[in-house]
Recover the amino acids of this structure.
């Protein structure tokens, strides 16, 4: 088996996926059967600089290089061969945000990530003008806000892109973007698969009214769908990935995609009436639509799958970070008592305890808002835990409350999709760190959205594996084969899943918690104002 894997690696019958997530940059190498062969990663964190969330480009490349180096070491350790080439390559990253470059390729202002919520005026105006929801984090909202704020750099913009688009551009020289990632920059015309021409024209008019002359269509990346070629790794690009010079240029790349699109691939959720929930620093649900929505909703983004099919996205800026912080505190306490526990064991104990907590959170309330949350109209966040004097204050209920809180904002958006629009789901897949402890957050999510929720090892390596699969699809698919068929018949055939059905008592308990959660939002707003 090892010899076969070694031959596959040296023979280039592999695909490499690199994803730049919010807390980790990860590289995954997959073999001819799409199974992971080796993994490398690098942890990183965003910085809050001048009241904006950002990452430096130096940190981008340091992290990418360390991930690829760790991957190469893992290949050598596991399979005894050197990683000198791969059959295909793909890059994914956090969607949205704002990376603006001048004609010389110089960054004009620090990268503004999806986490920033200073674009309220812009998002509101564009949503009204376009007749579709333009969220705070979309690239066009960042651009228009910069125009409204009179920022000097706007007149020097030659090219706008996302983080995945930037890395791909540096590796290949191609200013191109996968359609899923592009749909988080600017609205897509479902009929043409390109940016909406009427909305592009209207944006140019709005910019002119604000005193800026530009043609937005000239600034945005070219769009490519899954399976289309998107350039090759150049010599300069190979040096960026691997300064040691081992990695050879000439590797074909698939279109770069956002983390939402790779999450859909990693969970086989690209067909209508399928969906997935990804829970990490942020939490979001992607539901592939079988029909258009009846109207625009502030809580829902309209994006696409990597193949261009319409998707309703419920995106919440705040996910599992606050739960992680509490687990960290309990870990510190355990170590102070002299117990050298591994934090993963603390997660297991605390999450499992939540199953025995009061079904409605026992009168306790938590808000996981480290940053602003557009769905609940908060430009900034303050993590908050509140209880009344008669609350059931025990460890199990405390943990259940915080796990419920990590899903609560998502539930608000899903109510719009499921109850207001009547969108139906055949299956929902959950992945991300929140779901690692078996049967806990999965069960609570099933209660929150009153829908069966599946988990499985298929998404264990997450979006980095998903973009590796997209790279393989671009080079291995049969003529005319679409992405959904490729995933069903080639990648996920025989995959084992565990499905949690919503339990009536859990559903009722989550409903009761949500009534208290919504009623308590003024407390969170007061915390933002006063603290």
């Amino acid at each position: 088996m090892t010899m076969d894997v070694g031959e596959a690696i040296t023979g280039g019958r592999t695909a490499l996926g690199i994803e730049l997530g919010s807390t980790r940059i990860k590289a995954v190498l997959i073999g001819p059967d799409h199974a992971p062969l080796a993994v490398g990663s690098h942890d990183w964190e965003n910085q809050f600089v001048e009241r904006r969330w950002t990452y430096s480009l130096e940190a981008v490349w340091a992290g990418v290089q360390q991930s690829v180096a760790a991957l190469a070491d893992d290949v050598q350790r596991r399979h005894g061969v050197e990683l000198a080439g791969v059959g295909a390559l793909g890059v994914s990253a956090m969607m949205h945000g704002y990376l603006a470059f001048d004609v010389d390729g110089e960054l004009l202002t620090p990268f503004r990530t999806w986490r920033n919520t200073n674009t309220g005026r812009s998002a509101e105006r564009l949503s009204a003008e376009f007749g579709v929801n333009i969220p705070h984090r979309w690239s066009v909202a960042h651009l228009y806000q910069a125009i409204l704020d009179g920022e000097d750099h706007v007149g020097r913009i030659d090219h706008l892109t996302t983080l995945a688009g930037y890395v791909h551009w540096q590796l290949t020289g191609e200013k191109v973007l996968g359609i899923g990632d592009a749909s988080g920059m600017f609205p897509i015309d479902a009929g043409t698969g390109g940016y909406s021409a009427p909305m592009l024209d209207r944006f140019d008019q709005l910019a002119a009214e604000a005193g800026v002359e530009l043609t937005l269509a000239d600034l945005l990346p070219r769009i490519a769908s899954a399976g289309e070629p998107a350039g090759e790794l150049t010599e300069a690009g190979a040096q960026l990935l691997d300064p040691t010079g081992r990695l050879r240029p000439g590797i074909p790349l698939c279109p770069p995609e956002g983390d939402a699109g790779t999450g859909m691939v990693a969970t086989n959720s690209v067909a209508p009436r399928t969906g997935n929930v990804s829970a990490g620093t942020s939490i979001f649900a992607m539901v592939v639509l079988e029909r258009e929505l009846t109207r625009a909703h502030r809580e829902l983004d309209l994006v696409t799958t990597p193949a261009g099919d319409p998707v309703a996205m419920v995106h919440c800026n705040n996910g599992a970070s606050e739960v992680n912080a509490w687990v960290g505190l309990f870990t510190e306490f355990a170590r102070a008592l002299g117990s050298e526990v591994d934090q993963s064991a603390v997660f297991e104990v605390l999450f499992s305890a939540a199953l025995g907590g009061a079904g409605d959170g026992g009168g306790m309330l938590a808000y996981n808002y480290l940053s602003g949350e557009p769905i609940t109209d908060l430009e900034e966040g303050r993590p908050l835990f509140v209880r009344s004097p008669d609350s059931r204050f025990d460890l199990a209920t405390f943990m259940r409350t915080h796990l419920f809180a990590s899903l609560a904002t998502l539930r608000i958006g899903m109510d719009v999709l499921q109850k207001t629009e009547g969108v139906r789901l055949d299956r929902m897949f959950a992945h991300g760190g929140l779901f690692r402890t078996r049967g806990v957050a999965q069960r609570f999510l099933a209660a929150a959205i009153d829908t069966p929720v599946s988990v499985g090892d298929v998404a264990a390596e997450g979006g980095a594996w998903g973009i590796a699969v997209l790279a393989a699809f671009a080079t291995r698919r049969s003529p005319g084969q679409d992405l959904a068929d490729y995933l069903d018949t080639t990648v996920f055939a025989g995959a084992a899943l565990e499905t949690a059905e919503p339990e009536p008592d859990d559903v009722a308990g989550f409903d009761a918690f949500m009534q208290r959660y919504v009623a308590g939002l003024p407390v969170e707003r007061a915390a933002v104002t006063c603290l």
The mean pLDDT is 95.
